[in-house]
Write a structure and sequence with these properties.
This protein has 559 residues and is of the alpha/beta class. The chain has 17 helices and 24 strands. The strands form six sheets. The protein has a six-stranded antiparallel sheet, with helices on one face. A six-stranded parallel sheet has the order 9-8-15-14-13-12. The N and C termini lie far apart (67 Å).
Length: 559
């Protein structure tokens, strides 16, 4: 369900839906945003035009790329930014009693109609220091946006990046399922993870609420509890099954399954691998197949994968085949996944050959059980026959790194560039309102991102441009781009007459993210020892950064 608007603002005659999570309101912020807003107001500075950049300083997970996500929720929040009377009353109670009543009247009036937001398209591969969002507007209002916008971007981009990294390790041909709902950090963490894992390249989710909210494909069958809840095939009351084309009915489906199980057990090709199987497991598989004959996928590790789970599955799958159905496959949730998947594949291929069942050898094998990047990489090195991965805990909790660390820094106020200095050079901000471009080389891969001053001429195809590291004077290179892409686009023009970029569908964002990774040079996105991607500034902006740095840094005096 969509959250109700918190007092929707109109833009070009259109009201935008509010954020997915109804808790995302103007109060989802740090107290100091309101104390600063009051101080701005009292000083008469609250309407001064400010420009803030939202960016991060370091790529997560030891990698050299990040997938930007969360923009849609930011724009929905900004479009509906309006304080209610109840919220204003709470702010009055939370601030010192010395605050003047006029400030609360001011809070009643503000919205984001005088704010402009420029952003990189959601799903784009991004890099440190390059602004993901540039927010312009009255300084007090923009400060009130800082915390919620950071909150909406940080986790979204982190989990989308984590998903993309899993996709790169698994490979394009494997299906990836997000199974993290039960282990996620609360309902919002779970819903957000499902959405942003989909953007990062996952194919489906087990999260029904996320499927409803976002249209993400749903996947899921049964658990070990379902299997162990049965005692024997005698429990099965409804034993008939109609054929897939509806032309006939098998009155004793259980008997057909048991007949197939006997054939498998006595198969010469299988060399007597199978003995007596667990009959309660068989009963569970039969019951599930009767309920879902077109979608039969069995969890085969409740008792013993090779001796019981796989032969029981095969017997049910072959009985379904007699009636024109095709079983989906098996799921392995424990054990040596490389070995078990390979053995299962051999058995499926043997059955296809011996019993003449076309396609049985290609029956799908799904693996789960606390998978992560390292596990997938290890499976690739060992050799396996897994077609699909169900990944949960390590994916949605971003176990390898809990936060991305985006920041929101003032870079200009009243047309005056501002800089934040630090003894740690990585924390020095890049001042002034900037335009950002991605330059592509002859092979179609992106070479470098470059930031330039707002009034500088933009890079042109075929024209050589000097790209400089923002802080290291010796790192510089000339680039002759074969394609130039401007990164920041207007997603919220406020009351200005600028054209607003429409928010794409979730499916389009996902496709954009996948395409973006394909356009990256392989060494930038590889898992081990990736090559850092170059982020640069123009020669003119480089000179200005260092001029402003020297101008703002206090000069020491030696005694």
């Amino acid at each position: 369900m969509e959250a109700k608007a918190n007092g929707a603002s109109e833009n070009a005659g259109r009201v935008m839906d509010g954020p997915t999570n109804p808790m995302v309101t103007p109060l989802l912020t740090d107290l100091y945003q309101f104390t600063m807003a009051y101080a701005y107001w009292q000083a008469g500075k609250h309407n001064e035009r400010a420009v803030f950049d939202l960016y991060f300083r370091k790529n997560p997970f030891g990698g050299e790329f990040t997938v930007f996500a969360g923009l849609e929720e930011c724009i929905k929040f900004i479009a509906n930014f309006k304080l209610t009377e109840e919220e204003i009353s709470f702010i009055r109670e939370s601030l010192p009693s010395s605050c003047e009543e006029g400030f609360f009247n001011y809070l009643r009036e503000i919205d984001c109609s005088d704010v402009e937001v420029y952003a990189i398209s959601e799903g784009t591969v991004v890099f440190p220091k390059v602004p993901l969002l540039r927010v312009e507007g009255p300084v007090a209002v923009v400060q009130l946006l800082e915390t919620p916008v950071l909150n909406l971007v940080n986790f979204a981009s982190l989990v989308a990046t984590n998903a993309a990294r899993h996709r790169l390790v698994a490979g394009k041909s494997k299906m990836l399922l997000e199974f993290g709902l039960r282990r996620a950090q609360g309902p919002d963490g779970a819903i957000g993870a499902s959405k942003y894992c989909y953007i990062g390249g996952f194919d489906a989710t087990s999260n029904v609420a996320a499927g409803r909210l976002f249209g993400i494909p749903l996947r899921g069958t049964h658990s070990h509890a379902f299997v162990s809840s049965f005692m024997s095939p005698d429990e099965i009351l409804e034993r008939s099954l109609c054929s897939s084309d509806g032309s006939r009915t098998c009155e004793e489906f259980v008997s057909v399954v048991q007949s197939w199980l006997t054939k498998i057990q006595w198969s010469k090709s299988l060399s007597g691998i199978f003995g007596e199987t667990n009959q309660s497991e068989l009963a569970a598989f039969i019951s599930y197949a009767l309920a879902f004959p077109n979608d039969f996928l069995a969890l085969v590790d409740t008792y013993d994968v090779i001796r019981s789970g796989i032969p029981n599955f095969c017997a049910v799958a072959l009985a379904l085949s007699d009636l024109g159905y095709k079983a989906v496959g098996i799921r392995l949730d424990s054990g040596d996944l490389a070995y078990l998947s390979s053995e299962a594949r051999k058995i499926f291929c043997t059955i296809e050959k011996e019993f003449g069942v076309p396609g049985f050898g290609k029956t799908s094998i799904t693996a789960s059980n606390d998978l992560n990047e390292e596990t997938l990489d290890a499976l690739n090195k060992q050799g396996h026959e897994v077609d699909c991965y169900g990944i949960g805990t390590y994916l949605v909790t971003c176990y390898a790194q809990p936060a991305l660390g985006c920041v929101f820094k003032l870079v200009e106020i009243n047309n005056q560039p501002r800089i934040k200095l630090s003894e740690d050079v990585s924390k020095v901000s890049i001042p002034c309102k900037k335009r950002c471009y991605r330059l592509y080389g002859k092979e179609g891969y992106s070479l470098v991102d470059i930031m330039i001053g707002e009034n500088e001429p933009c890079p042109k195809v075929g024209e050589r441009i000097l790209c400089r590291h923002p802080f290291n004077e010796s790192k510089r290179a000339y680039v002759v781009p074969q394609h130039v892409e401007e990164l920041l686009k207007c997603y919220w023009p406020g009351k200005s007459d600028k054209v607003r970029e429409e928010l794409p569908s979730l499916k389009d964002i996902r496709e954009h993210s996948i395409k973006q990774l394909e356009q990256m040079r392989p060494d930038h996105i590889r898992r081990l020892n990736p090559t850092p991607y170059k982020v640069s500034v123009s020669a003119r902006l480089y000179d200005f950064i260092h001029f402003l740095w020297l101008n703002e840094a206090p000069v020491g005096e030696l005694q």
